[in-house]
Amino acid sequence: MNEVERTVPATEEGRSLTVRIWRGAQDGEFVSYAVPWRANQTVLDVVTEIQRRIEPALAYRFSCRVGVCGSCAMTVNGKPRWTCRSHVGHVHEDGVLTLEPLRNLPRIKDLVVDMSGFFDKWQQAGGRFSGTATRHDPPAAVDPYSRKRRLADAAIECINCGVCHAACDVVAWKPDYLGPAALNRAWTLVNDERHAGARDTLKRALADGGCCACHTQGGCMAHCPLGLSPTGSIAGLKRLALLEFFKGGR
Amino acid sequence: MGLRSADRHQAYLAFLGHRISGLALAFFLPLHFLVLGLALEGQARLDGLLAFAAMPAVKAAEWALVVLLALHLGLGLRLLAVEFLAWPGARGARLHWIGRAAGFALSVGLVFLWSILRG
């Protein structure tokens, strides 16, 4: 670990927080900063304080700051998290925070990763909705209590923050694996009665690198900040894969 | 740093337990079939191997293997239930089955130990 480079003066209590931040891209190193310990601060607050007061060149992403956009996701003390919803008091380890970019995605600079591959996989999994109705047609009458709609609703709130993708070992082992977020999206579309391309989406989700590559470790479910279960969505796709197999569809 | 093993969760431990016990099974089965084959070839060689298997260290390894196989069965049943049965809820990954599988493996281990001690 590097020596603490620069600091912000500690609070009156004198307590400070040590923050180790990955600096660089694929090649880089951890640099330590010391900031005042405050009773109520999120990890994103701390990163912002370091960028504003100590290290203006520090690169990181954020937007909404309230857990809506998902753009501030990083690896905090070894776990992928939304930094805006991570209270320092809950995640520090002996007064130390170690911050890295999300795992399984190419690093651009410091805490910023290239998300384009993540979104490409969304498309590869058939994640684009294609409707059959036009704007002149009345809205589709979807029964919210139907089995398929309830299955879709259970997975629909994903905001593509990439936390599950970073938590997944299979993505790390098998780079062409579509990943939990893309397959979760495919599951919602397969169950969406308005989606015209359900067969195509299912075919893509069952192809090589699709749902059958999942080892059911459940890391996506354990780390999803929204409490969704991509593991459950992938299990649903696996059941459909079995049905397709018995029907001779593959 | 990446994700650390200390941060792993219950389902990940189940994954590890299932895979490691599966590997143990993969190593054990060829030896098991070898012993069965020796029984066909001659009593003397089989007796020699059975005497080797009666050594305390080998018995302990056999006990560990039995426990791992029971664990593999229990965790495998959970995996089949998770992947092929409807989930009780959106996050119903049947995590409580992991503890049951461990309890089952331990019970089998105790029964096996009891049978060894009884001779």
TrEMBL record, chain A:
Gene3D superfamilies the record matches: 3.10.20.30, Alpha-helical ferredoxin
Pfam families xref list: Fer2_3, Fer4_17
SUPFAM superfamilies per record: 2Fe-2S ferredoxin-like, alpha-helical ferredoxin
Taxonomic superkingdom: Bacteria
Reaction(s) this enzyme catalyzes, per UniProt: a quinone + succinate = fumarate + a quinol
Location of the 2Fe-2S ferredoxin-type domain: 17-102
InterPro entries linked: 2Fe-2S_ferredoxin-like_sf, 2Fe-2S_ferredoxin-type, 2Fe2S_fd_BS, 4Fe4S_Fe-S-bd, Beta-grasp_dom_sf, Helical_ferredxn, SDH/FRD_Iron-Sulfur, Succ_DH/fum_Rdtase_Fe-S
Family per record: Belongs to the succinate dehydrogenase/fumarate reductase iron-sulfur protein family.
Protein name, UniProt field: Succinate dehydrogenase iron-sulfur subunit
MF GO annotations: 2 iron, 2 sulfur cluster binding; 3 iron, 4 sulfur cluster binding; 4 iron, 4 sulfur cluster binding; electron transfer activity; metal ion binding; succinate dehydrogenase (quinone) activity
BP terms from Gene Ontology: respiratory electron transport chain; tricarboxylic acid cycle
